[in-house]
Amino acid sequence: MRFISDSSSHGVREQLFELEGVPGVLWAPEGAAGSRPLIVMGHGGGQHKKAPDIETRARRLAAECGFAVVAVDVPGHGGRPVDEEFDRIATENRARVEAGEDLARLIAEFQALVSRRTVPEWRSLLDAVQQLEHVGAGPVGYWGVSLGCGLGVPFVAAEPRVRAAVLGLGGALASAGDAARITVPVEFLLQWDDERVPRAAALALFDALGSVEKTLHANPGRHSEVPDYELDSTLRFFARHLG
Amino acid sequence: MRFISDSSSHGVREQLFELEGVPGVLWAPEGAAGSRPLIVMGHGGGQHKKAPDIETRARRLAAECGFAVVAVDVPGHGGRPVDEEFDRIATENRARVEAGEDLARLIAEFQALVSRRTVPEWRSLLDAVQQLEHVGAGPVGYWGVSLGCGLGVPFVAAEPRVRAAVLGLGGALASAGDAARITVPVEFLLQWDDERVPRAAALALFDALGSVEKTLHANPGRHSEVPDYELDSTLRFFARHLG
């Protein structure tokens, strides 16, 4: 784990790093020492580790809950090079959608493919970050919607250190089997008028989650229009389960 | 409005009253003076104005938010006499269910019938309670699930003083038209394994609400198993919109 920068603002410390070629960012309360809960965040498609909706949530989780938060670039995103295999599939998929194939199914299949790379990357990330003195081996949460949900479902299913997850804006087409293996509390976000994820597929993914405690929060609006009050709810959810 | 008793415990004042033959209860912070938000609560089927889930919520709204809360017995419930018309229909419905008719449809039709009585009763209740010095003409909210949703949807649609509502555990079979006329913020509770309300009917009622701001909270479990953390959410929802 190679640290690239270290800065603080508004009471939150931000460290950029690289781990086995993957660029990442770690936030924690300024002056933090000792172990604390850690949230792994998965960014959306076409975004990166410091996209505004990631950084806003991360800084509030650090400042208001005292948590550490880590996010890395997904293959082919942010500071990572173009991935030839994924790039070729994405190009093929655009042609298949134009030829009339179902967009939601192609997205789901693509996310399942990418997750075979990100699940081991994120597990190695946990190993490394939890060895830092100001993070330690506290309880772990996961936050990810859209692509972050498609990659998050197999990650949360595979990683026993994750004890609570916020997921959503995703459907069950490719990940129902992984979802059934998730048993930790989940808060699941659904946009009622989502133009990218069919409502029935999103409800099916919530239904497929194996968790005894899972709560679906559905709000009107399109894919990117999650209301601000859900961020407050996310903070309370993680504080309740990891705090 | 005739007051029957007046007592206080744990910082909350409770007044039993009767208004035009309808028994009711009013909660407010002990020593309250001046106007404040008022929540009207509608109880469930077979329950009454002081059922535990009503009283628990009312006392927290009074103690933690400083609100006034009022609930009355629905016709044929609590301290009200048996209503011969409703009693006859309920008996007929039991026979119709045994003969194979759809329970959810019969419940919805029955609630629509009862609401023709309760909507004017609850509007008169608002008139009377808001004249009390320690309640006043502040913003009004409505809370009601199950029967309290079936009666609440037409009430909230008809009553412009209501500015926010918590509804749920009900379906759209009889009330979709009223639901479409509701424009205030709504928090809608749905039990994922509800044995009385088909999931599709509950989702259809949420869908039918005309509100720009509406949020669906769905949790696993049967009709009566709404998790405790939803009560915390109810308090925050009313505090945000009426406080």
List key phrases describing it.
homodimer; hydrolase (chains A, B); AB_hydrolase_fold (chains A, B); 24% strand; Rossmann fold; Alpha/beta hydrolase (chains A, B); 243 residues; alpha/beta; 40% helix; FrsA_esterase (chains A, B)
Description:
Chains A, B: Belongs to the AB hydrolase superfamily. Chains A, B: Keywords: Hydrolase. Chains A, B: This is Alpha/beta hydrolase. Two copies of one chain form a homodimer. Chain A has about 240 residues and is an alpha/beta fold. Chain A has a single domain, classed as Rossmann fold, CATH 3.40.50.1820. Chain A has seven helices and nine strands; from the N terminus they run ββββαβααβαβαβαβα. Chain A has helices at about 50-65, 85-100, 105-130, 145-160, 175-180, 200-210, 230-240, and strands at about 1-10, 10-20, 20-30, 40, 70, 140-145, 160-170, 185-190, 215-220. In chain A, strands 1-2-3-5-4-6-7-8-9 form a nine-stranded mixed β-sheet, sandwiched between helices. The longest helix of chain A is centred in the middle third of the chain and has 27 residues, at about 105-130. At the A-B interface, α6, β9 and α7 of A face α6, β9 and α7 of B. β9 of chain A pairs antiparallel with β9 of chain B.
